[in-house]
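For consistency, the fold was encoded as tokens, which produced the following:
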Amino acid sequence: MRKTKAKKRILLPDPKFNDVLVTRFVNNLMYDGKKSISYDVFYDAMEIVHKRTESEGLDVWKKALANVTPAVEVRSRRVGGATFQIPSEIRPERKVSMGIKWMILYARKRNEKSMAQKLAGEIVAASKEEGAAFKKKEDVHKMAEANKAFSHFRF
């Protein structure tokens, strides 16, 4: 365990939408430090979302992110030789982080030509409360609901 808590790095807002959350998303999307390519992919995805939904791309993305952000998760805990899945609340930072990572993960697994199209498809699906990232959130919530009986083991 650490002696001191790691300092929180301050992120600069992105150049186009002036939003720190977009920068966080782009940082997770990035491979090999290629941030400008990551920004291009994100902005292209926002254009595609705008064309598909006829509404502002950033608003649709924020709605999609809110839809895939989990409220509870299960954590493993050993009690007397048995391992229990214990449902627990998630810190707000971790909630957003999990939502971002799931959206990117399932966008990458989609069957479309470019990453921008894959990301746009996942964003549109998540905003309509469908798609793989939304399903993942639902599965996590179902798991927590099913293991509610073990919540008294919470640490």
